[in-house]
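Translate sequence into structure tokens.
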Amino acid sequence: MAEPPRGYNGRVESLASEAAPDCYGHPGIPSVGRCRGCGRACCDRCATDGVGGALCPACASDRIPWEDRGGAGPWRAFARTVQAALFETERFFRRLRRPGPLRPALAFSLAVHWLGWSTFALLYAFGLPGKGGPSLSTPERILGALVVVGLGGLLGVAGDLLLALCVHALLRFLGETPGGLSATARAVCYGGAPGVLNATVVLPTFLIPQAWAAICTVRAVEQAQGVSWGRAATAVLVPTLAAMLVTFALANAAMGQLAG
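Result follows.
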């Protein structure tokens, strides 16, 4: 099996202006383009449409674990997806070049936000009581914790969709966008995988999950839409920083009212 050409930069590479080499999977058959994922030369028989260009069979079948969780089960698939997003960023987000459904990405986002809120909910239910906390019974606290987790997850998904709309609008404003809004939404949902670290309670104090998620989302959008890193960073960081400023302002206002 032929190796990808040296110096391949991950972009769609046309073979129209050069002598077309043989397809890596079908020797003797001229190729029509290079795989956007690995750079291998592909013919019409093995090329699969991807965002911004064709994909070879190997790259087209390299799916996100969460979207192929039938055999592994949801918990193991979720853990593998989070691990890959956090520690195998390059390979993981290349998989977004392959078009996929939006619904599993939304379910993944919901699970991330639920897990991120879980520790705060447990602390509310069984941990140190807050102001006026002793007046609540244990069942009331447990019910309140469930509400916190439920609303936190739903609001988190809504926030991801809103961010995807803003990111996609900025991408369109800055130039052509090979993929549609669904591709951007998938990138935002999977790029938010570091949100599970909010469950540690300590790390959110230093904004580590938020910063990590912003970096992952930039990488995800870059791969899913086939745009430059600078363009992806601009489209992601501008609305993200604006949302953080608004959140801090609202939090300070709320704390001021409670103090008063």
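Note: The chain is about 60% helix and 5% strand.
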